[in-house]
Specification:
Number of strands: 0
Number of domains: 1
CATH class: Mainly Alpha
CATH architecture: Up-down Bundle
CATH topology: Monooxygenase
Radius of gyration: 14 Å
Order of helices and strands: HHH
Largest sheet: none
Strand content: under 5%
Helix content: over 70%
Structural class: mainly alpha
Amino acid sequence: MINIEFIGHLAAFLTTAAFLVQAIKSFRTKDLAGISLGMYFIFASGVALWLVYGIALENWPLIIANGLTLLFALCILMMKIKQRH
């Protein structure tokens, strides 16, 4: 039988890794034309709430995964905002 906690850890790792890949590509290419400012703002807000939830539960996989994902998403969001000016 599959351990449900393993599935949660794997999901956290994969979603965080996906945003790391996007952040690296964004930093290298500086091409953010296809990135929606509104979507990233909403997404970062949701991830911040998941982080608060993880902190409240003292659940380290939630805290680490959402903390890193929030960091990557905020970096991309800041780059997108700077490009608009």
